[in-house]
Amino acid sequence: MTVTTTTSHSATFEASWKSFDGIHGGLLVASMIRAAVDATGASPAAVSAHLDRPVPPGVAALTVDDVHGGRTVSCRVALADSATALVRLARDVGHTVRTTSSVEPASDDPSTLPRLEIPIDFVPFSQHLDIRPINAARPFAGGDSPEFDVWIRLLDNLDFTTTERSAVLLDALPPGLFATLTMPVAIPTVEFSAHFAPTTPSDSPWHRLRHRTVWATDTLCVDETELFTATVELAAQARQLRRILN
Fold first, then answer.
1. 56, 168: one domain
2. 132-156 b/e with 16+ CB inside 10 Å = b?
3. DSSP state of 82
4. Which residues form the Acyl-CoA thioesterase-like C-terminal domain (predicted)?
5. What is the mean pLDDT of each run of 10 residues along the chain (246 residues)?
6. Which of 70, 80, 101, 170 is most buried when burial is the number of CB atoms within 10 A of its CB?
């Protein structure tokens, strides 16, 4: 089945969700996923987004077109002239029967761990996050390993679905390279791909997030991310292609 009708949607982005030059990329991806769900009525399973230019705060127009499929649906979402995404959705996701990605359960309540403080004037959207590092990696600490391992939660009771929340959290941490640097460098995401797994509902807002740079050149790098629920079920995985500007 192919539906050629284009549907129009909109999203309002608050200034508190700015990253550096524009709105946080994970929130942009979440908004495109929401538009795809609204247009198709199916459940999101994967997304591949190209982030071409910063999106300013305010109202942004989204369009959904090129809808294909029956039980498995695909569509293209455009966010103004700044980003596009191919979203793959399913009408019968089912439940997880096998996963090879796992982490150890937390030995302590994550809220008892020291909090990672990120200056709001440097990264405004950090005011919506509570991040509790597990390993020794810290931004701009000049460490040996480009890998962060944290517990994380959203501080606000925002109107996110499970998948939208996963998209936001997958893009919540800085590039893994930041753990090896000693000063800020602009490393924006230009491509973001994610897959979402069905999980058991949980009352806990906490997620385990493992995030690392797997390769880098002088101008490009790729980060890989795994997101787990508080009961350490795999919730989502992502890869990001980033441009190193300095």
1. no
2. bbbeebebeeebeebbbbbbbbbee
3. T
4. 115-241
5. 70 94 95 96 96 96 91 94 96 70 74 91 93 94 96 88 96 96 94 94 91 97 96 94 92
6. 170
